[in-house]
Amino acid sequence: MRLTELSERSGTSTATIKYYLREGLLPSGRRISATQSEYEESHLRRLRLIRALTQVGRLPVATVREVLSNVDDTSLDQHTRIGAAVWALPHGSQPDPDGREEQDADRTAQALLKELGWGFSHAAGAASPAYRMLVGAVAALRRLGYPAAAANLLPYARAAEQVARTDLELIAGYEDAEEQIEAAVACTVLYEPVLLSLRRLAEAEESNRRFSAES
Amino acid sequence: MRLTELSERSGTSTATIKYYLREGLLPSGRRISATQSEYEESHLRRLRLIRALTQVGRLPVATVREVLSNVDDTSLDQHTRIGAAVWALPHGSQPDPDGREEQDADRTAQALLKELGWGFSHAAGAASPAYRMLVGAVAALRRLGYPAAAANLLPYARAAEQVARTDLELIAGYEDAEEQIEAAVACTVLYEPVLLSLRRLAEAEESNRRFSAES
């Protein structure tokens, strides 16, 4: 397809697409004349991933480039690539834990991963943004005096396992390897507000249910 | 306790506490002399809630004031208050859905709530920030061409129900009514990065598990 069709089908302006091409986020099309290039379905998919990361994930362009380089790292096998791309996904709003609380939070997080038997995360965990985000969150809970022991975190981890199985089912539904990895990253980011909003609605629901049961 | 003790125990500077007092986020202490006031445990708890909302939830002060006025609304019964405070909690990063996608997303969200039997949200849903956040997230998924039918969302909602039961157990562990509502709001915000980071680690774990099963 030509640039105008890529723009229409992706809902992204041609100026924005040209910007992504210049920044190296989107690979060049196949040059067919001095002024025109031909783009593939893979360009459309990549464009959707970029928009998921910038618009919903609110990641800056430099960070998107980093995420895409993980996505494109073909030196890894497929499942490690999916895991690594999600695992390395930066998160905008993690709090900076201070030193003292962070050590205790790190111990709590390690105890939790051990209890869960999450071997992959336990072995390689400490280096990942996802793990740093967990430690930061636990440190914030501790610092503010809310429950943050491994036993408190365990039910959240069990729910996360259930969500991850759903995520991987969805990802496995895509046919080719490239599509799967792009979907893994995009859906991780795009389903985050789905999950958080449903949790808030479910809390209101559950609080209401407990009230009805009492009265 | 005096201001200095409140500062030490909360890990918040006296200047910041005075700012919160001036802005009406924190109720005044009991005046004991021309220059000194006495603060209670309730001040310490309120201060923790304010820090959870500003530091982890990244809410601006004006929004925190709004959330606290819901928390303090004693015209409602306890369970409705907990539900309403969480339900009305603003969320910083919801995307703005455009008109066309939003109508479809709204229909999907309504179908989901009906399927779940979430009567509280279904009846009052459309007005809440949590519901708007869900619609915005569904619209973004649709716009970018990722799965976003009610059937795709249902497993996430089931996991959210499980999380909400854990949340309400934690909240019920607090003794008095004020503490419960403050904990409901603070833990909703503080456990969000816990849940999102655990989901990412669980995805890496699950992807790794599927790989091992195949090889």
Question: Can you walk through the features of this model?
Answer:
The structure is a homodimer of 215-residue chains. With 215 residues, chain A is mainly alpha-helical. Chain A has 10 helices and 2 strands. In chain A, strands 1-2 form a two-stranded antiparallel sheet. In chain A, a hairpin with a 5-residue loop joins strand 1 and strand 2 (37-38). In chain A, helix 4 (61-71) runs antiparallel to helix 5. The first copy, chain A, starts with a helix and ends with a helix. The mean pLDDT of chain A is 84. At the A-B interface, helix 3, helix 5, helix 7, helix 8 and helix 9 of A face helix 3, helix 5, helix 7, helix 8 and helix 9 of B.
**Beta-strand segment tally of chain A:** 2
Principal-axis shape of chain A equals elongated
Spell the H/E element sequence of chain A: HHEEHHHHHHHH
Distance between the termini of chain A: 63 Å
Q: State Rg of chain A.
A: 21 Å
Count up the helices of chain A. Answer: 10
Greatest interface: A-B, 89 and 89 residues
Strand order of the largest sheet of chain A: 1-2
**Oligomer designation:** homodimer
Q: What class would the helix/strand composition of chain A place it in?
A: mainly alpha
How much beta of chain A, percentage-wise?
under 5%
Which descriptors apply to this entry?
215 residues, mainly alpha, two-stranded antiparallel sheet, 10 helices, 2 strands
Q: How do the strands and helices of this protein lay out in sequence?
A:
The structure is a homodimer of 215-residue chains.
Chain A: H1 3-10, H2 14-22, E1 30-31, E2 37-38, H3 41-56, H4 61-71, H5 78-87, H6 99-116, H7 119-124, H8 129-143, H9 150-172, H10 177-214
Antiparallel strand pairs in A: 1-2
